[in-house]
Structure formats: C-alpha cells, structure tokens
Write a structure and sequence with these properties.
Blueprint (H helix, E strand, L loop, with lengths): L16 H8 L7 H16 L2 H7 L4 H9 L18 H14 L1 H14 L1 H5 L2 H14 L3 E4 L7 E6 L2 E8 L10 E8 L5 E7 L5 E3 L16 E9 L6 E2 L4 E2 L1 H4 L7 H30 L18 H35 L7 H33 L11 H10 L5 H14 L10
Parallel strand pairs: 1-4, 2-4
Antiparallel strand pairs: 2-3, 3-7, 4-5, 6-7, 8-9
Helix pairs in contact: 2-5, 5-6, 5-10, 5-11, 6-10, 10-11, 10-12, 10-13, 11-12, 12-13, 12-14
Length: 430
C-alpha cells in the first residue's frame, strides 16, 4: 500500500485501552439480545466524543480497533472459525445500534459485513469457506473498492492470474482495512469480477480525498490500483478452466442478492443515525434548552412546552414505524439466505419480493431520517447549532449517503410492483 503525502492523521487505538481490556475478557455474545447489547456498549463509547471526532476528521484506526476487540466484525461469521454465527437479521440490528453512537463507524461496520460475506453470495463453495476462515480467524476488517457504475477498473488475464489496473472514485473503509474487495470489468466483456486482496501491498494507493460534509470518518475517497495480481482461483464465481462466469453461481437470482442486502445495510445505519439524533437531542433539550417566554401560554420548563412535546412525540411515532419495517425486511433477507443459501435456488419472484421490502425501508428511512435530523433543531434551540455541540452531524451524515442512489427510483420501483405486480429487474442498485 502506497502512503500518500496527503494522508490524514489517524486516531490512536490506545485511547480505548480500558475498553479493549474489558472486551478481551468477555466471550463473544451467543444470541441476538447479547449481540445488540454488545453493539450498544460500543455505541455508548463512540458517542462520548463523536462530535469532536467529526471535527478532527482523523482516520478511524482506533474506532475500527474497538469494533475488532468488541467482536462485532465477526457477528455473521461461522461458529467453526470463531464467528458469531448470526443471521443478517441480527447483523442489521448491530449496525443500527453502532450508528446511533457514530454514523461513520456504523457505516464502516455495515460495509465490512457486506464485503466480508461477498463470497457467500457470488463465490464458489470452496471460496466461501476459505474466505470466511481467513477473515474470521484473523479478525480482519474488510474494505471495498467497488463502484460498478464506473467501469474504471479493468481486469486482464495473465496465465493463472488476473490483473487489476485502474481507479475507483469511492473506496469505503479501504484506508483502514486489512483486506479489500476489488471489482472490475474483464477485458473484452461486460462481465464483472469480484476478488479479495491484502490491502497493504504496492499498487494500492489511496488518495485521501474524502472531505465531505457527512460521514467524514468513513474513508470513502478514491484509490489507484496498479498491477494487482490475483490468482484465477480467487475470481469469485468464475470457472478457472473456461475463464468465464459459472452460470450456476453468477447466472441465477441468488447471485444478485448482494444488492438488496447492502441496500438494507444503508437503511439501517440511516435509521441508527436518526435514532441517535433524537437521543442526543432529548438530553440536550432537558439539560440546555430554555422555555420560550413570549408564547402566551408560558411554561417554566422546556419539557412542558406543547410544541416540544408534539415534535418528540411525532419523531418517536415515525421512528418506531421505521424500526418495525426495517426489522420485517431484515427477517425477510435472513429467511432467503437460510432457505436458499446452500442450494442457491431462490426464485426470481421471491428475490424480487424481498427487494421490494428493502426498497420500502429505503424510502421510509430516507424520508424520516432527513426530517427527524433537521427537525431536532426545532426542539433544541439556536444554541444547539454550535459546531462543538455536534447536533448537525446527524443530518449531514444521512444527507450525504441518501444521495448514493436516487430514492425516487425506489418509489417508482415500488409503484410498478404495487400497480402492475412487476418485480424489479436486478441491477447494481436494486
């Protein structure tokens, strides 16, 4: 890995030494409730200085180390290799919980869980087992140089190897990763290849150009890829003898499940960020907001103000509904993997119906998340706009990522399903 001169400062894992020691003395959680409780502990730790971390914008080496010591990177991993053995239904709730404390770290965890299980969906059975063993036994954090919209990373064949060359505008988590998922287009075709490589090697140069308004610690900037060689045996789901995609893996609906799976990752960290915003705002309102003295029905305390009570009540109602919908969709995704993960035999119809549950959550969490994270200023007051308060980070985080792919297309997709009973055609964003 080439270190750019513009590389930012990194947070020091030593700041969490006490927490590391506590987590190292604990065994991994064994059920859903314990995993959510573990994630909640991590979120509480992260929330203590999240506002200052956002201002500093340092590379989150320490925060990823905290995810590692807490065991959260392993939640979906097989028991056989020391993983948590949980389903995506639990994984989504863990992501949501962490995002309450720090949206950037919740996003990093969500992307890691997707990239660390990529071979489970688009890889052979041998690749799936081998990659899971590698990641879980070493407690590796996985980033991803994946952006299928841009065909700017080309792949050529050289004997028993494929060679990646090119560029990716976005590479979430790569800077602080142990392994990186690479995705590009094979020469002379329109076929994409996914593979996994060690991040720390010559030929991977991070540009450190992620300086956006929100999710500032996700290290989602560009990366140059030069002459990265990978054995054909590590081309996920490809036949090494024919040098073509294996149709039994990549030519069936199961092979497209990465897309609804990651879309629900997005919605769960949106939801976590919105819940975190309300939690932060309620504490601020109780401790700092002053009652308005010119309303005609004056109150001594802000918590007795009608408009404040009405706003928090409305936020609570909509967030509860969004959580229920997200949980329902998470259960749907988990059931598809449980029912069809071994045989890869999910039908196009069931895959499409699950995708529409996921699209529904995306629409709702986008709308509710943006409204709640901007609305909390109405219940906290002008002083809450102070930079050091950090209340603005919640809106900035949701606003940044909800531009990832236009939610209007999810509305249209749902309309066609509701009106015409048409399931969506699998794409890189559906």
């Amino acid at each position: 890995m080439t270190v750019s001169a513009s590389a930012p400062k990194a947070t020091d894992p030593k700041v969490y030494d006490v927490e590391h020691q506590k987590f190292s003395s604990d065994t991994l959680p064994t059920n859903e409730n314990e995993w959510v409780q573990r994630a909640r502990r991590v979120a509480e730790i992260l929330a203590r200085d999240a506002a200052q971390r956002d201002i500093d914008n340092h590379s989150p080496v320490a925060e990823v180390s905290l995810l590692k010591s807490a065991g959260l990177l392993k939640v979906l991993g097989p028991h056989a290799y020391g993983g948590g053995g949980q389903s995506w239904e639990v994984g989504y709730k863990v992501i949501r919980e962490v995002a309450k404390g720090d949206g950037s770290i919740g996003m990093l965890l969500g992307y890691h869980l997707l990239w660390s299980t990529t071979a489970n969906v688009v890889g052979t059975d041998e690749q799936k087992d081998r990659i899971q063993k590698l990641i879980i036994e070493n407690n590796y954090f996985v980033g991803g140089a994946v952006n299928p919209r841009d065909s700017d990373l080309s792949i050529t064949s050289d004997g028993d190897e494929i060679v990646f060359d090119g560029f990716k505008n976005f590479n979430t988590g790569g800077v602080i990763s142990d392994l990186t998922i690479l995705e590009g287009v094979f020469e002379g075709t329109e076929d994409h290849i996914f593979s996994i490589v060690k991040t720390d090697q010559p030929g991977i140069e991070f540009l450190h150009n992620w300086d956006n308004v929100g999710l500032r610690l996700t290290e989602s900037g560009g990366v140059k890829i030069k002459n990265i060689r990978v054995p054909w045996a590590d081309a996920f789901g490809w036949d090494t003898s024919t040098k073509k995609p294996d149709p039994t893996i990549l030519g069936v609906p199961f092979g497209t499940l990465l897309l609804p799976t990651i879309q629900l990752v997005f919605s769960n960290f949106y939801l976590g960020i919105a819940l975190g915003a309300v939690d932060f705002a309620t504490k601020y309102t109780v401790e700092n907001t002053r009652a308005w003295p010119f309303g005609g029905d004056n109150k001594e305390r802000p918590v007795d103000e009608f408009y404040i009570l009405e706003r928090y009540g409305n936020f609570s109602a909509h967030l509860r509904a969004a959580e229920a919908l997200a949980d329902r969709a998470g259960a749907q995704i988990a059931a598809v993997y449980a029912d069809h993960g071994a045989a890869r035999d999910v039908s196009a119809r069931r895959r499409g119906e699950v995708a529409e549950w996921v699209a529904s959550v995306k629409v709702v969490t986008t709308d509710v998340g943006l409204r709640v994270t901007s609305g909390v200023f109405e219940t906290t007051g002008a002083r809450a706009t102070g930079r050091k308060v950090g209340l603005d980070r919640f809106w900035r985080e949701i606003r940044t990522h909800t531009l990832h792919d236009p939610v209007a297309y999810k509305n249209r997709e749902l309309g066609r399903f509701a009106l015409l009973d048409e399931i969506p055609e699998p794409t890189w964003y559906t």
